[in-house]
Specification:
This protein is α/β, with parallel strands linked by helices. The chain has 18 helices and 19 strands. The chain folds into 2 domains: 2-213, YjeF N-terminal domain (Rossmann fold); 220-485, UDP-N-acetylmuramoyl-L-alanine:D-glutamate ligase (3-Layer(aba) Sandwich), CATH 3.40.1190. The strands form 2 sheets. The chain has a 12-stranded mixed β-sheet, with helices on both faces. It has a 7-stranded parallel β-sheet with strand order 4-3-2-5-6-7-9, sandwiched between helices. The longest helix has 19 residues, at 437-455.
Length: 490
């Protein structure tokens, strides 16, 4: 798993190394790693134009020392200093010795410089940056966005909150972020994910001094380890039996999608106990369809309840019946709307419960997610004593104990009707296998995103495309591989 750390945790880990080592030792390690990534991105270094935007802190020093290394290899390097009097002195001296040029933000040649650059380094703000960019930094960021350079952020893109990913106004649009010592949570969640681009982690020796993380991102290997292949002694009952209550006369497709996703994931048996039984029978003869209430369905090991089921009195009664069981339950869509008015149904449960709201559904429980999506999911999970899967560009899973996962897979093409029903079916099937609820939710989000990436290769996707691509997504996660999908979200 990729550990996600806060700025305070990183600073605490840096402190003993800074006290024990010579001045700027950590900065030189960071700069060496940063320069190496830039070399790979540039390919040929000699003669390439490199511009750097330099603030007043150590982040600017990292950029200056790295740029000095690039200049020493023949790159044409120019630094734009936001405050020439307060730039890192040793880093600035190193750049000048290597032949780099220095400009102030207001000089007339700056827009042309940024427009013609092959690579732009953002060293304006580091992990301590809070609030929006000041005018000069925002103007430089806008000029970079108008150019065609490869954009690289130093540790974190300027303008994003390193802990939450929140952006107040303008933030640097990085194609790549080279982060030092640990992956900062703000690089993979919220608006920060879009601004960070591909994240490259440079080891500067912080590992022994970092506390155990409470937030993580799963890799394909982590997911594969939680999806063991069936053995010769398995049968349909030992592979997990999931019950599905989804769909209605108004929304029959929700039952079809949810049931299909559960079947395609890994469940040995799916029992359908909703009111869209004709459609489910026609689409999935492999499912066992019950014309009755959930209690009539037979033995199951988890329940999925909510997608398209409606919010009438009968639906409320069914929701209460499912939540009264001692089995893991995933609650989605219409069931979330009903549960928001009766949260005690979850608080009283002894078995695991997973809630899967999008932002509007989340707000029905009392507050908007806001800029700190991990914090918001943690608070609701702790309040209700359950697992919260907060959907979004970077889906967040939070357990009641504060453990969180940030999903690193997916595509914007997933923002279409029915894809949430598929996610519910996937995760419900994983709950039936006995995975801890938070892990099942995190694995479900990862697989859902991988299936979305496969389905989106041809352009716009439908929710049904995800169901069809699930076996392939699972196979690739298990190691059949595709470089185009990537190995992880960071």
């Amino acid at each position: 798993m990729i550990a996600l750390h806060t700025a305070a945790e990183v600073r605490g880990a840096e402190a003993p190394l800074l006290a024990a080592g010579p001045p700027d030792a950590l900065m030189h390690r960071a700069a060496t790693g940063l320069a190496s990534v830039c070399v790979r991105l540039l390919g040929q270094v000699y003669g390439r134009r490199v511009a750097l935007l330099v603030g007043t802190g150590d982040n600017g020093g990292d950029a200056l020392f790295a740029a000095a290394r690039l200049a020493g290899r023949g790159a044409r390097v120019t630094a734009v200093l936001l405050d020439p009097e307060r730039a890192h002195p040793a880093g600035l001296a190193a750049l000048r010795r290597a032949g780099g040029r220095v400009l102030a933000p207001g000089e007339r040649s700056v827009p042309s410089l940024l427009g013609r650059a092959d690579l732009v380094l953002d060293g304006m703000l580091g992990i301590g940056g809070r609030g929006g960019l000041r005018r000069a930094a925002a103007d430089l960021t806008a000029a970079v966005a108008d150019g065609a350079a490869v954009t690289v952020a130093v540790d974190v893109p300027s303008g994003i909150d390193a802990d939450t990913g929140a952006v107040d106004g303008t933030a640097f649009p990085a194609m790549h972020t080279v982060t030092f010592g640990a992956v900062k949570a703000g690089l993979v969640v919220g608006e920060g994910r879009a601004h960070a681009g591909q994240v490259h982690l440079v080891d500067i020796g912080l590992g022994p001094h970092l506390p155990r993380a409470s937030a993580f991102q799963l890799t394909d290997a982590d997911v594969a380890a939680r999806l063991p292949a069936p053995s010769g002694g398995d049968d349909k009952y030992s592979q997990g039996v999931v019950g599905v209550v989804a769909g209605s006369a108004t929304y029959p497709g929700a039952g079809v999608l949810c049931t299909g996703a559960a079947l395609r994931t890994r469940a040995g048996l799916v029992r359908y106990a909703g009111t869209a039984s004709d459609g489910v029978r026609a689409a999935w003869p492999e499912a066992v369809v019950t014309d009755g209430r959930p209690g009539d369905a037979g033995r199951v090991q988890s329940w999925v309840v909510g997608p398209g089921m409606g919010v009438d009195d009968d639906a409320r009664s069914v929701l209460a019946e499912v939540l009264a069981t001692d089995l893991p339950v995933l609650v989605d869509a219409d069931a979330l709307s009903m549960l928001a008015g009766q949260p005690g149904l979850v608080r009283r449960r002894g078995a695991a419960t997973v809630l899967t709201p999008h932002d509007r559904e989340f707000a029905r429980f009392g507050s908007e997610p806001g800029g700190d999506r991990v914090g918001a999911a943690r608070r609701l999970a702790a309040d209700l004593g359950c697992v919260v899967l907060l959907k979004g560009e970077a889906t967040v899973v939070a357990d009641a104990d504060g453990t969180a996962f940030v999903n690193g897979t997916g595509t914007p093409w997933l923002a279409t009707a029915g894809t949430g029903d598929v996610l519910s079916g996937i995760t419900g099937a994983l709950l039936a296998t006995g995975l801890p609820a938070a892990e099942a939710a995190a694995v479900g989000a990862h697989l859902h995103g991988r299936a979305g990436q496969l389905a989106a290769r041809g352009g716009p996707l439908l929710a049904g495309d995800l169901v069809r691509r699930l076996p392939e997504a699972i196979g690739r996660v298990r190691g059949l591989g595709d470089p185009g999908l990537g190995a992880s979200g960071a």
